[in-house]
Amino acid sequence: MKKKNKYFVIMVLFILSHLVFSSSDHVVYWGTSGGPETFDPAQAWDEVSVFFTSSLFDTLVRLNTNTSEIEPSLAVSWEAKSDGKIWVFKLRKGVKFHDGSDFDSSAVVFSFERQMDKKFKYRYYDFPLFSEIFGNIKSVVAIDPHTVVFYLKESFFPFLATITSSGASIVSPAAVKKHKEKFRENPVGTGPFMLKTWEKGKRVVLSRNTNYWRGKPKFDELVSIINPKFEVLHNLFVKGKIDCLDSISISRTVGIKKLRWVTVKLMPTLSVSYIAFNFKNTYLQRENIRKAIRYSWDDRILKYVFQDFVVSLNSILPRGMPGYKEISGKKSFSITKAKELLKKEKISEKISLNFLLLNNTGLERQMISLFSKNLQRVGIELKMINVSQAEYQKRIRKGDFDLAVSGWISDYPDPHSIISSLFYPQLLEQGFANLSSYENEKIRFDIRNAVRESDAIKRREKYKKIIRVINDKVLCIPVFQNTSVVIYNNKKIKQISINAIGNISLFDIETK
Questions:
Q1: CATH level 2 (architecture), domain 58-175
Q2: DSSP per-residue codes, 153-209
Q3: Is pLDDT at 212 greater than 90 in this prediction?
């Protein structure tokens, strides 16, 4: 998953993404509150970095922006063999990297080996997400200049979906060797745009790749103006200085969308935000208490706090994910049922729980504050603890919390991207609250077993059983699904499309 503390996903909700147009018909201006952390696609954790790298680099296969179907990109065809343990890809011919070097099978091998092998000669820094998403890859072999084979440690049928993610982008070996550890500041891919300038914290300028294999992009440059103050970006947009915003408060967005020349487009992404339990807490080890907390959650809180900018969830699997309709859970608000469940536990004292929050998550704090009032009616006292990001991650790692909001955006369109991360202990060690402290080896066995199933329908049935356990045992409380929001000047931009992962294709943007 695109681990952006995937807890950080929660804030990115209200500040959203996208583009703009200036007085020139050949430049698109984009206002944003935060810049990229890196331009190396294999290092990109956050949405902003992934947005840029997805236009600088290509993957072997990609998601169709409109249908979310997997389609050819740098690979023109593929075949799974040996029960999903071997994947053979035929590569597109005649493709060039931005530096003029040839794209071929050796570039694919290089792009993966620099992440796989810590002793690789041209590895200059770590790639923390690789083992989570691609840990099943045993080796990558070039058969000929236009044929590459992936050998997996075991059958893994979501593999095709995984290589649509940013970490599977193909980089220029020549550029990595030239720039070494500074490659993340000097990216070279095969994508529709190239990095022209990067002034950290101020602006990013991309210029179009006129030799792009899919054809020339429809505008010359993207200029990203970075300013942490929402009101500054808002004023620039209203005055026509920039033509698109990806960072704005909900209240400002509600007001700005009333203007005729403004289009506000919302797209639910394959993401989930949930309330996580610390299973070391003796109260939270009791199923009835967890159920009582769930019955105290009222979805109407979301409408009050976030208006239409999030989508409520009844399942840990988000809407739009294959199989969602078949495994949606049931959840209802009932103070009466919550009280009845606590009564069964025969607890005489008042239950007091700590809820860990990040200092900069104002809307989330408002959401939990309203939630705490419901819990108080039930007999549970909730104390909110606001901490810095470093302190938050430290406390999660140590298990020094009772409740916390966590979540992430899926890295690829397969249920495995969400479910596997829930029980991935390394994420907990990195400071992401998930369900890995829940001791149930059968769930882990079922997850490993599901990816070996080649039939998509049968595989969804296996996931259905896993999610039923999560729902019935109340191992977490799914709360909402993130929404990407595009705000743009419709007099200058025809339309902007967002795929299911929340990425915008600059190549598909048309100007008027």
A1: Alpha-Beta Complex (3.90)
A2: SS--TTHHHHTTSGGG----HHHHHHHGGGGGGS---SSSEEEEEEETTTEEEEEE-
A3: yes
